[in-house]
Structures are given as structure tokens and as C-alpha cells.
Input
Amino acid sequence: MLKVGNTVNFTPLICAIMTTEEREIEFQAKIDNGQKIEPKEWMPENYRKQLIRMISQHAHSEIVGMLPEGNWISRAPSLRRKAVLLAKVQDEAGHGLYLYSAAETLGIDRQTLTDQLLTGKAKYSSIFNYPTLSWADIGAIGWLVDGAAIVNQTMLARGSYGPYSRAMVRICKEESFHNRQGYEIMYELANGTEAQKQMAQDALNRWWGPSIQMLGPSDAASINSSETMKWNIKVESNDVVRQRFIDRTVPQAIAAGLTIPDPDLKYNDETEHWEIGPVDWNEFYRVIKGHGPCNKKRLSDRQRAEKEGEWVREAAIAYAEKQNKKMNSIAA
Ligand code: BYC
Output
């Protein structure tokens, strides 16, 4: 009980005697009012778990996502393209760092999260288990993968957890540049020589399906949605976000003179939406269970990077300790 001026504040006492059920009701009311939840506030254990799962998968995706693009830095067709790609890949590393930091506010440390990735316990986005076979694949990743990510992440920016939603705002701004550079690559190739046009079409043919799948299973199969949506971690369902991505991307393909590889694709005048044919969910589940074309390579590359980077982490810790000692001796 706190004495404030002449009045007595019973709030801490009331909080202390609230049951879990009462706290959950109060928490849900905050969510329904559109209030953000901040790290030190009370939250249901499953809210915390769901966020750690999602934010860490997202962070791992940013880091693993650097690998397919990194593959083309040394082979980019011009100095301008190389500089842009290098900057983009560095941005993805930055996104990973914000996201690991956002996850750490939930009481889990980064090494634990990294270990979960390296031991194959944690997922990362299915899309990064495909190879980048030609330069056009770099265009397709920026256009389609970053495009899908932006649609998903502008939705996540409206989510209930403060640190995650704020990280999304900044990440989306950077993703918009990534998306445009990817579309520019595709547009130029599609309007170049016949061979270049074919290269762009081939990349679209291979990346379209996985980009559609990347936005998560259909609503009927989405096991986490009941919790992630009840708590506004996701404010829209997987299918709603997927439809927005399709509606925005199909006209871009048409403008570039490329063909979406879906014979069932059609525009519905009544709903004003593009409708696609069946999604290959078998492929999606195969990939997220570890059997995509590059799952093994992606994991072994990350494991190697962890091992080869050990001396850097040791040096950084030794340097920080030395600096601390120096500061303490100045203060003494
Ligand atoms: N890949 O119940 P559901 C980038 C899993 S990086 C793998 O619908 P939820 C970029 C899901 O985790 C952007 N797994 O789940 C970087 C769950 O399994 P668990 C990456 C997937 O959470 C570098 C199960 O399927 N973006 O843009 O309600 C270069 C059932 O799913 C996938 C994010 O990470 C998938 N694609 O909704 C270039 C966004 N989809 O965990 C670009 C953050 C689903 O129960 N995440 N699963 O074992 C989300 O927004 C949500 O987690 C999802 C799924 C919409 C993806």
C-alpha cells in the first residue's frame, strides 16, 4: 500500500491479490483497446511464448535470408548492382539484430535463440531454402520475397507488442527500398534481350509458388492463429495478407511483361481480387520439415559461420572487459 499525499493508493495491493484469471481479463481489455504491451508489464505466459517463437523465427529468417543473396555479391553484373546488393544484405543483418533485441526483452538471451537455430529446433522462413541460380533470382527475391515480407510486416507493425511493432516500422521502410531494387532488376531484364527476358521469367516461375507459401498455411490449417490473433500479435490472417500480396503483385508482373506461372489465375470483377489456383501445401510442409532443396546447406553455413566467428566474439568480450576496467579505474 502506498501513501500518496493524503490519499492511500491500494493499486499495488489490488494487483498482488488479483487472480491469474482477473489479470488475463485485464490484459485482454488492454489488447482490445489497442494498447501496446511493454516488456515489464504482466502478460500471459503463452503470449510471451508465442512472441518469442514468432520474433525469433523472424530474426533467424533475416540472418539465413542473407545467404541466398550473399551468393551473388561477387557476381553482380555491375558495380552499382554490387553496391546496392551489398547494402541490402547488410540491412538484413541489421533487421536480425533489432529482432533478436526485441526477443530479448521477453526474457530470453540471444545465445539461446542462436543455439535453437543451429541445432535445427527453431524454424526460419521456408523461402530461404531455395537456391539462387541466376542474377534474375536476386531481382525475384527483392520483388517477391521482400514484397511479401512488406505486406506481412506492415500488418505486424500494428501488432500489440511494443518492441516488435516498433522494429517493424523501421524494417518496412528499408524493405520498401529492397522491393523496388528487386522490381527494377526484373523490369530491366524483362525488357532487355530475349535471353534476359527468359531469365526473368524463369526466376518468376521458380519463386512465385514459394512466395505465396511464405505467408503461412491457409487460415483453416493455421494452428497458432487463434492465439496470435486473439492477442493482436497478428492483426490479420495469413489468407488476408496473402490476397493483398497477390493483388499488389499481379499488376506489377503485367506491367513488366512477365507471366505469373498459374494457369488458373483470373481477376474477379465482383470481388475485385485476383484469384489463384491451388497452392502446393505439400511442398510447403516438406520444406518446413527440413526437406527443401537447400535446408541442409543453409544450416551448415550458419553453423560454420558461428564457429569461424568465435574469435571475433572472444575479442569483443575481452575488449569490453578492458574498457570496463579502464572506466572503473578512472572512476576510482
Ligand atoms: N516458413 O499457425 P501458423 C525477409 C510455421 S525475412 C517456415 O499460421 P503463425 C527477408 C509456423 O511457424 C521475413 N515456417 O503460424 C530476409 C508454425 O510452426 P510452429 C520473414 C512457417 O505464427 C532476408 C506453423 O507453420 N518474416 O523478409 O500464426 C532477405 C503454422 O503456422 C512459415 C517473418 O518471419 C514459413 N513461411 O503465422 C530478404 C514474419 N509460415 O512455429 C527478405 C513473422 C508458417 O508452430 N512471422 N510457418 O512450429 C509471421 O508473421 C507468422 O509467424 C506467419 C505464420 C504469418 C509466418
Residues 253 and 259 are 6 Å apart (CA to CA).
